[in-house]
Specification:
By secondary structure, the chain is of the alpha+beta class. It has 3 domains: 244 residues, BirA Bifunctional Protein, domain 2 (2-Layer Sandwich); 62 residues, Herpes Virus-1; 90 residues, Rossmann fold, CATH 3.40.50. The strands form 7 sheets. A 7-stranded mixed beta sheet has the order 3-9-10-16-13-12-11, sandwiched between helices. Strands 20-19-21-22-23 form a 5-stranded mixed beta sheet, sandwiched between helices. A hairpin with a 7-residue loop joins strand 12 and strand 13. Helix 5 runs parallel beside helix 6. The radius of gyration is 25 Å and the shape is globular. It binds adenosine-5'-triphosphate. The site of adenosine-5'-triphosphate (ATP) has 16 residues, from strand 10, strand 13, strand 16 and helix 11.
Length: 457
C-alpha cells in the first residue's frame, strides 16, 4: 500500500512541472488541470505505449480517430440523453452538493449503483446518513443530473442546433463499424480502438486528476462471435492487467474486481474493474473491462436503420457480433503511475532523496547530460545534441553533480551521463542509474545502443 500522503505527491507533481493548475493566472477553473513540461511527455508516452501494444502490434486490432461532436441521435440510441445521469443531493444546512450514490457508499459501505433517486432517498433516510461537511441529516431529495456538456453547432442557438461533447469515445467506434469492415478487410475476432478526449460534467470531480470533467480515454471495442465473448473477456482482463504490470506498477497495489450481479449494467454479462490502491481511497477504478454483448450495435441499428452486421466469409451467415470493451482513462493511468513511482529514500550520507521510479519507457526525460565542470561544457553539449536526435534528453551544468543527480531522480530521469576530464582521453562517459545509483563507464560510441536497450518497453 502507498506510504506517502496524496497531498505530498500532488505537491511534488505541481512543483516539478508535471501538472499545473488550469487557467492559473485567472484564479484557476474548478478542477481543471494542465499537463506541464514533464507531464505532457508522460501523458504522450502512456498513449504511445497503449497505441503500440493495443493497435500497432496487435494481430487483431485497428485504430480510428473519430470526431468529438457527433449527431445527437447517437446519444438517443445509446441512452445517454435519457439515462447518463448521476443523482445529486444538496445538504439543506450547509448547501454542499453530493453524488447520492457516493454519499451512501461512503457512509454505509453499501453500493447504490443503479438505484433510482427514490431508492437512494430511502437509503439516506433509513441509515440516517449525515452530511460529511456539517454533520446534519437534512438533504434535498435526490434528483438526476445529466452529465453531458451541451453546446450549439452553427450560428443559431436553438433546439435544432444542440450537440453534445462526447462523454465517451466508444460510440465513435460503433458508428464506424461498417466503414471499418469495408475498408480494413478484418475478420472476426477483431477490435477497433481509439484515443481521444471525453467530457463529463461530473457533480463531484476531485482527487486531483482522478475525476475531472475533461479527460482522455483509450478505448477498444473488440468484436467476436456470440458464445466466444466470455473467453475474450477473460483475455482482455488479463491483457490489460499485464500491461499495467509491464509499466512497472507494484502488483500488491492492484486488484481485479468483478462486478456483482446487482452492479452489472443490464446489457452486460460480465464486467471487471482493475483498481489501484490510491492514497486517497481504499481502491479506485483505473480500467473497466466489460462484455457489452450486442447491445450497442443493435441500438445503433434501431436508431439509424442501417444494418450493422457481420457476414461470415465461409458460411455466408450474417449476425450481430458481441463486443468486449476495455476502457481506460489516460489521467487515471497517469495518476496511478506517479503514485506508484513516488519514493523517498535515506542515503548513506544522511541526506534524503525523492525519486520517481518510473519505467524508463515512460520517463519524460530519458537522460541528462552533465559536464563535470563548466570547462567541459563544449564536448558535453556536443554529446547532448547528438543524443537528442534519438531521445528526449536534457543538458544540465548548474550546481554540483550530486545536486544534478537529485534533481533528475526527483523527476524520474533514468540515466545521468557525466562527461569528465577522462572522457577527453578515453571517449567514455559515466552513466549513473537512477534506481540503484550505480555508475558505470560506457564508450560514447556505444552510448546510444546502450540507452536504447534500457529504454525498451
Ligand atoms: P465512475 O463510476 O468512476 O464515474 P465510470 O464507471 O462511469 O466511472 P467508465 O464510463 O467505465 O467510468 O469510463 C471508463 C474509464 O474512463 C474509467 O475506468 C476511467 O479510467 C476513465 N474515466 C471515467 N470518468 C472519468 C473522469 N471523470 N475523469 C477521469 N477519468 C475518467
Amino acid at each position: 500500500m502507498n506510504k506517502y500522503s496524496f497531498d505530498e505527491i500532488v505537491a511534488h507533481l505541481r512543483n516539478t512541472g508535471y501538472v499545473y493548475q488550469g487557467s492559473e493566472i485567472y484564479g484557476g477553473l474548478s478542477n481543471s488541470w494542465d499537463f506541464g513540461v514533464l507531464g505532457s511527455f508522460l501523458k504522450k508516452n502512456i498513449k504511445d505505449l497503449w497505441w503500440r501494444e493495443f493497435i500497432e502490434r496487435s494481430p487483431y486490432n485497428v485504430g480510428i480517430d473519430s470526431a468529438i461532436l457527433m449527431n445527437p441521435k447517437t446519444w438517443e440510441a445509446t441512452g445517454h440523453l435519457k439515462g447518463f445521469s448521476d443523482s445529486m443531493v444538496d445538504c439543506k444546512e450547509c448547501k454542499s452538493r453530493f453524488r447520492a450514490d457516493q454519499l451512501i457508499e461512503e457512509a454505509t459501505g453499501l453500493s447504490a449503483d443503479g438505484k433510482s433517486p427514490e431508492e437512494m432517498d430511502a437509503m439516506i433516510a433509513e441509515h440516517k446518513i449525515v452530511c460529511p461537511k456539517c454533520g446534519k441529516h437534512n438533504f434535498t431529495s435526490a434528483r438526476p443530473f445529466n452529465l453531458m456538456f451541451k453546446t450549439y453547432i452553427g450560428t443559431l442557438e436553438d433546439a435544432k442546433s444542440v450537440v453534445y461533447l462526447r462523454p465517451e469515445t466508444a460510440q465513435g467506434i460503433f458508428v464506424n463499424f461498417n466503414n471499418v469492415l469495408r475498408t480494413s478487410r478484418k475478420k472476426l475476432p477483431f477490435g477497433i480502438g481509439q484515443i481521444g478526449k471525453s467530457f463529463r460534467n461530473e457533480i463531484t470531480p476531485g482527487n486531483f486528476i482522478f475525476r475531472v470533467r475533461e479527460f482522455e480515454q483509450m478505448e477498444l471495442e473488440f468484436f467476436c462471435r456470440p458464445g466466444e465473448d466470455l473467453s475474450w473477456y477473460q483475455y482482455w482482463v488479463s491483457t490489460c492487467f499485464g500491461f499495467i504490470l509491464r509499466m512497472g506498477v507494484k502488483e500488491e497495489n492492484l486488484r481485479i474486481r468483478p462486478h456483482s450481479k446487482e452492479e452489472l449494467s443490464f446489457y452486460s454479462t460480465a464486467t471487471s474493474d482493475i483498481e489501484y490502491a490510491f492514497p486517497f481511497t481504499d481502491w479506485g477504478e483505473v480500467w473497466g473491462i466489460a462484455d457489452r454483448t450486442d447491445y450497442d450495435l443493435k441500438r445503433h441499428m434501431e436508431y439509424s436503420k442501417e444494418k450493422l452486421l457481420y457476414r461470415d466469409p465461409t458460411s455466408g451467415e450474417t449476425f450481430v457480433p458481441y463486443c468486449i470493451e476495455p476502457s481506460v482513462g489516460v489521467e487515471r493511468l497517469f495518476l496511478m503511475l506517479v503514485c506508484d513511482a513516488y519514493d523517498k529514500e535515506s542515503l548513506d550520507n544522511g541526506e534524503e532523496r525523492i525519486v520517481m521510479h518510473l519505467h524508463p519507457a515512460l520517463a519524460p526525460v530519458k537522460a541528462c547530460v552533465c559536464p563535470l565542470v563548466k570547462k567541459l561544457s563544449e564536448p558535453a553539449r556536443a554529446l547532448f545534441e547528438d543524443l537528442i536526435n534519438d531521445f528526449h534528453c536534457e543538458f544540465d551544468e548548474a550546481g554540483t553533480v550530486g545536486k544534478r543527480y537529485r534533481r533528475n531522480d526527483a523527476i524520474g530521469t533514468p540515466f545521468c551521463i557525466t562527461y569528465d576530464f577522462e572522457s577527453l582521453e578515453d571517449n567514455c562517459v559515466t552513466v549513473r542509474h537512477r534506481d540503484s545509483m550505480k555508475q558505470e563507464r560506457v564508450a560514447i560510441a556505444e552510448l546510444k545502443d546502450y540507452l536504447k536497450k534500457r529504454l525498451e518497453f
